Input
Amino acid sequence: MLSVAGLSKSFGSRVLFRDVTFRLSNTRRIALVGGNGAGKTTMLEIIVGLQEYDSGSVSKQKDCRVGYLPQEILDEWNGSVLEEVLQGAAHILDLEVRLRELEGQMGTALGAEHDEVMEIYGQLQSQFEQLGGYLIEAEARRILGGLGFSAGDMDRPLAEMSGGWQMRASLARLLLQKPDVLVLDEPTNHLDVDSVQWLEGQLQAFPGAVLFVSHDRDFIDAVADRVIELARREAVEYVGGFAEFVVLREERIRMAEAAAANQARKIAHAEQLIERFRYKATKARQVQSRIKTLAKLETIEVPQVEELKLKFGFPEPRRSSRVVIEIEDASIGYDNGAPVVTEANLVVERGQKLALIGPNGAGKSTVLKAILGQLKPQKGTVKIGANVDIAYFAQHQVDALDLSKTVEHEFRHKVGAGAGNRNLRTILGSFGFSGDAVDRRVGDLSGGERTRLALAEVMCNPVNLLILDEPTNHLDIQSCDVLEDALVAYPGTILLVSHDRYLVRNIAEALVEVREGKVTQHLDVEERVLNPSGSSVSSSSKANKVAASGPKKSDQRKATKRAEANARSRSSKGRSSKGRSSKEGQKLLARLERQVTRADEVVAGLQAQLADPAVYEDKTAMRDLLEALDKATRRAANLLAEWESAAENHLA
Output
């Protein structure tokens, strides 16, 4: 359907990639992964014809229609949401207009002309019906509903809506268009968890080919049957989803290491023979043969997994009160209208790391505004504890960056004296901007680099409550890993809003679900809450298809976690003659140990409550406590089992 052969692209002396070859056949779904600046977006723009390439070819079948969703939408919107989305089916709407014209002609045409008009009308009507013309508006509304639009929003002017909703409308228009090839650049950036799951189902059932860039590992595993890694100026294709990619890439590295070691032994042997017999006439022929062989030999290069050499830096915050956030019987809304959230109750304690999840429009932003003091509850109370210092990262902060300034000037302007006595360049270095990078213009940065800069502006001050609203948008997978490590090590309290289920599982210890105007606190990261539709493919489901019925999803996630940890650390283990434990393995053990400690503290706290005789006077309270203790005990046992498994793998 679409083929790329020998594709190369450079910007001046900088080579982005060279000799890239792959094929998008019908129903194939390829995820393109790689670090920020590796050329992923450039590759997509070349394929859809928005950029020129230096050499190679991009070819597609005749009449092949390609649909493209960029990261940023620059369209001008003139109609309602529904009207703009229906433009995706413009060819069908044009048919409808033509049918209306023919109906008018039938009323005036006579004789042979009337028969001719009737024949054309019949053909076009059949084509219109086959294309789903009579149901096209219903289909558009179905797609919009799946992407989170309410019935009322569909008739609103799209120009009045936020950039995130405009992006969703663009995606809806593309899905309604039903091209032969879908090319998507970070399609989940502006979606909530429910919409991401819905989109996974749509792409799984899509009859054409899909090429997409994403940092969301669960999404890649649910959709992709191929992964192409763009790194070190080359592209390597792997069969399977993200979990298989990690394992197969590690296997490829091991095989290359073995081949390189074997080649090194042969070279050493040849050099030894040359050195020993160089001046012996009887061995001249053998010596010359070895010299010629070495001259022609191409050294086997071992591919390396590129890791982002940076660490998000968190200055030590002051100690807050035990209760950081307390919401009690609160109804929260706007301008004395109907409340968006009613009778909300939530207690967040010092050091907790919670994820706030739920569909867009359910009230997550409303709850955040109340916590931040931007919105007063109509009823009840929202209290912030003593000595609580808040840092808030919102999606729009990336848009607020001054594109004309350099990285250093933008950072200095936003932070100023807030950095205290710390060197601003040192802080920027901890966020990946070192050396000449601080002198780059913000407008020349990639989307992921701008996100890192915006995070730096928010996180550089010592705070003990971090509220993050979709912090991984535009970040590559490596940057997501670094952010994950930083949030695990962060000493304060975290309230995280994210559609990235992988990040939520690894950071959050509990969930706060906002759905249908209610706020529900869950003591654990329950898969049924994180994936309410039950349709999501977990991070290693494809890797475990060998089992007829498939393993449990929890087992799959553990298997993937171990596979990815091993994949990141095995190379350094292999090079260590003493078998030293890898840095990644140590991180994993430390993280699990902290989670085990916190889980044990929860169990101890519940046991202490049950030791109070007054509890047994209220049967409902007693039953709730016993259920909570049972759940907390099982969580502690599961975490301990994970820690033991990780320890065994680490020492193996």
